[in-house]
Amino acid sequence: MGNFSFSIKGYKIIFDTALNSSKVQIGDIIGIKNNNNMEIGVIRRIVQLTEHKLQLGIKLLALESEVAYISLPNHDSIYAWAIFLPGIKKSCHQIV
């Protein structure tokens, strides 16, 4: 993806369309691998910087994700795998 800046609420990244075949649009969900965690966010802003470079504003939904096994009540045979996104907890040192 290239250059990026980060805050507790999200990322500002550069997305190079010459290197990525994916088409991005506002509202798309994106996973960002950060060390051993997969952070999940939603694209909130897109700015065209050059012919092939987009600046994406991403609001984080979760700082980590977990795979979860889910089923219908009283029907264990009807199941699926899902992604669980724990909420972003405010730090006790964070100003509200």
Overview of the molecule:
The chain is mainly beta and about 100 residues long. It has a domain at about 5-65. The protein is about 0% helix and about 60% strand. It has strands at about 5, 10-15, 30-35, 35-50, 55-60, 65-70, 75-85. Strand 3 (about 30-35) and strand 4 (about 35-50) form a beta hairpin. It starts with a strand and ends in a 12-residue tail after the last strand. Mean pLDDT is about 85; it is low at about 90-95.
Structure keywords:
58% strand, 0% helix, 96 residues, 5-stranded antiparallel sheet, mainly beta, disordered C terminus
Structural class of the secondary elements?
mainly beta
First-residue to last-residue Cα separation: 31 Å
Q: What ranges have pLDDT less than 50 throughout 5 or more consecutive residues?
A: 92-96
Characterize the biggest β-sheet. Answer: 5 strands, antiparallel
Mean of the pLDDT scores? 84
Number of strands: 7
Please estimate the helix content.
under 10%
Strand order of the largest sheet: 1-2-5-4-3
The portion of residues forming beta strands comes to over 45%
In DSSP terms, counting alpha (H) and pi (I) runs of 4 or more, how many helices?
0
Shape, please?
elongated
Order of helices and strands: EEEEEEE
Tell me the Rg in angstroms: 17 Å
